[in-house]
Amino acid sequence: MKDVTALILHLVLQGLFIAGAGPAEANGPVIIREVALVEPSDSHAPQKALVDIQNTGSNLVRDVAFTCTFSDGSVVLETREASVAEIARHATVRSEVIHYRWPRAQHVSCKLITPR
Fold it and tell me: I need a labelling partner for 37 at 20 to 30 A (CA). Which of 3, 30, 71, 76 fits?
């Protein structure tokens, strides 16, 4: 019985590797390093959240999704979802999320949804 279970486990792991879920594409520890709200010089231009996302792991990470919430004091103005296609090992990427609405945001906070 142990031999059959081991064989099944081996075949399942081989199937995952062939399907592209091998260690080279495994999701590693991803963190949001920094978030900055950019105020444009033109008052009619949209605001931007600049989000630095770091892959602290030693494997490539794909499809990292996150949300940014724009607020005016304690009032949430808008929450937007964004994603980064891939982050190389030990790398940091910068993404931007646009806030189009009025009133203007005074604060932005971002959090990872999950590496997909």
Answer: 30
